[in-house]
Specification:
The structure is a single chain. The chain is mainly α. Helices cover 91% and strands 0% of the residues. It has eight helices and no strands. Helix 2 (45-54) crosses helix 8 (372-381). The two termini are 59 Å apart. Keywords: Coiled coil, Signal. It comes from Paramecium tetraurelia.
């Protein structure tokens, strides 16, 4: 029994080996046939034509589009329609280019005829503008001299005005400082004197007048001078508290005399300040009127100057524009000829390129219609799938 099984296994193994060998031989034969077929297709003249087509940008795009259709196992009818539309578009563009060429040729001829007339007109314009600009420049020089002189005079008066105002400002500041100090002294007297009167009234009621000491009064004044430098009111209040009642009357009389004298000084200062201010205002008014008059005259001259400058600038612009027009017309013939030649060259290049593109499309259409196997082989060999 075991022998039969062993024999059966051997026969199965031999059978599988034979079948496997036959399968491998079939695959090798099929690969050989495919290789031989591809070699034959690559030798076809259409294959070489496709290589030429692929070197062109448009041809490369067309072949890629065909490869996409083949990869999807789709019909090439859409590609055929696309090629027909593209060929029709190129032919339409060529017709438009031919029409445009005729129009531009006619325009070039007209443009060249205009240059001679433009040169003549620009020469006459240059001569007239330069003559008028020269006359206006002479008038500008006169106005500028008058304006500069008036500006100098205004500057002198303005300096005097500034100096007087500075002096007046300082005088007023000094006046304010002096009168403020004197008013503070008066305020101090007005605070202390009522209290001193009260002290004296009490002393008089007790008949203590015989005890007034001159030395005490002098000492009180010395204390006032020392303490009053910082705050007169505080100093006087402190001084009052140190005096003997019998010494107050003499101090009251001296303080009232000083107070009255300060009031008179303030009044005199105010009158002098008012007069000084009026005198300064009178001088400043005269200076102001002089400056105003010069300023009006200067403004009038400046307005006339600006109008003259504007007119001169107009003539200068006329001259510049005329020179530019002259140069443009002088060089125009050469430039326009160059433009027309460049356009013609571009037209010829575009025409050649369109003809090449149309020829490529026609070649592709012909190969697709007659040699689809060559197309498929080319796509596979060039990895366009």
């Amino acid at each position: 029994m075991k022998s039969i099984v062993a024999i059966t296994l051997v026969l199965c193994l031999l059978s599988n080996q034979v079948l496997s060998k036959k399968h491998n031989q079939d695959e090798e034969h099929s690969a050989f046939e495919k290789s031989h077929k591809k070699l034959a297709l690559s030798d076809d003249p259409a294959y070489g034509k496709l290589e030429e087509i692929q070197d062109h940008p448009l041809g490369s795009k067309i072949l890629q589009t065909i490869a996409l259709q083949l990869r999807g196992n789709e019909s090439l009818s859409a590609v055929s329609k696309l090629l027909n539309d593209l060929k029709g578009d190129l032919e339409g563009k060529q017709i438009d280019a031919d029409n445009e060429r005729a129009q531009i040729g006619s325009q070039c001829k007209k443009d060249l005829q205009n240059y001679s007339q433009r040169i003549s007109l620009s020469i006459n314009e240059i001569k007239d503008a330069e003559f008028k600009a020269k006359r206006l420049n002479e008038a500008i020089a006169v106005y500028q001299a008058e304006i500069n002189e008036k500006a100098r005079q205004i500057k002198v008066f303005q300096a005097k005005d500034d100096t007087l105002r500075d002096i007046r400002r300082q005088d007023n500041l000094d006046f304010s400082t002096r009168t403020t100090q004197m008013k503070e002294m008066i305020q101090a007297f007005e605070v202390i004197l009522p209290k001193l009167h009260q002290v004296w009234d009490v002393a008089a009621a007790h008949k203590a007048g015989s005890f007034i000491e001159e030395e005490a009064i002098n000492e009180a004044l010395v204390q006032l001078a020392k303490i009053g430098e910082e705050n007169p009111i505080t100093a006087m209040v402190a001084l009052t508290s140190t005096l003997e009642p019998t010494a107050v009357q003499t101090l009251i009389e001296k303080m009232e005399a000083i107070r009255d004298s300060i009031k008179e000084s303030i009044q005199a200062e105010e009158e002098a300040e008012a007069k000084n201010a009026r005198d300064t205002d009178t001088i400043l008014a005269a200076i102001f009127n002089a400056i105003e008059s010069l300023t009006r005259e200067k403004a009038s001259d400046e307005e006339a100057l600006q109008e003259t400058i504007r007119n001169r600038d107009i003539q200068d612009k006329r001259s510049r524009d005329a020179h530019a027009e002259f140069n443009a017309a002088k060089n125009g013939n050469q430039q326009r000829n160059q433009q027309c030649q460049e356009y013609e060259l571009q037209y010829q290049q575009n025409t050649i390129e369109r003809d090449k593109q149309v020829a490529i499309i026609k070649d592709v259409q012909n190969i697709i219609a007659t040699k689809i196997e060559v197309v498929t082989c080319f796509v596979e060999e060039n990895n366009l799938f």
